[in-house]
Amino acid sequence: xxxxxxxxxxxxxxxxxxxxxxxxxxxxxxxxxxxxxxxxxxxxxxxxxxxxxxxxxxxxxxxxxxxxxxxxxxxxxxxxxxxxxxxxxxxxxxxxxxxxxxxxxxxxxxxxxxxxxxxxxxxxxxxxxxxxxxxxxxxxxxxxxxxxxxxxxxxxxxxxxxxxxxxxxxxxxxxxxxxxxxxxxxxxxxxxxxxxxxxxxxxxxxxxxxxxxxxxxxxxxxxxxxxxxxxxxxxxxxxxxxxxxxxxxxxxxxxxxxxxxxxxxxxxxxxxxxxxxxxxxxxxxxxxxxxxxxxxxxxxxxxxxxxxxxxxxxxxxxxxxxxxxxxxxxxxxx
Length: 334
Fold this sequence. Notes:
The protein has helices at 56-59, 70-73, 92-99, 119-129, 144-154, 174-182, 205-222, 238-243, 253-264, 288-303, 307-310, 324-327; strands at residues 2-5, 24-27, 29-30, 33-34, 37-40, 43-46, 63-64, 79-85, 105-112, 133-137, 159-162, 188-192, 234-237, 268-272. It is of the alpha/beta class.
């Protein structure tokens, strides 16, 4: 079986589903570019992102898919990192430096949620210096969830991950977090602070207890066995998070997204991460009120929100190949 991936005069792109070791690729070039998507084992990869790591003259040939190993595909630029920021002038440049060295990095999408310090100036300088940075700013403070929604709309990567700007989470953990998605085993990966990879700072017992309680309540209604529902590190196949209807506010994103990916019955993994938490004197922002809101969101998005209400268009996990513009009818706003 041969699958032809091309973009023609009408600009049509196709998702093609086929067994990994039973197809050959024939990618056509138009105007010097290579566009096309292959969907195999639930994994989407935009071949236009591979030009930097695979020679174009090699891609032009019919190439058996089993000759292109997952390790080779992992060299492609397919990762979008979304960074919501609010008054992070002391740490923003440092977190960007750590993200720039990620081997699969396609772009860093930074959304300034109307910071009142020098964050905006620092972000302007970083975006002028590095082409991979895409910057956006809210004219009024709307909370972390709204900043993430803005960021997700701007992403282009086949994998999307959330990164806080406060250095509590170490970007060195990201390659291992996204590996199950790159290998075609997972659709979503949670980083768990309770499966310690290197180190975890010892801080507030009440926060630990509250997190455990919220994780238990969430697991009770989703019927999945997560250890850390409130973790920042969540990596998604890009089509899942871009098609999701996100309605919560403040810090409600963590609970809402967990409930909605659970409704998909997709493959969810956890991976251990390090955690370098901050004190309130160092700038920590979450409060007890956010914990109460999280309990409300657990009930709302698990009991009062259907799968159909959770997505603009349900992400595909197989089936017939369909044109993207057809699939996008009624989809998420650009």
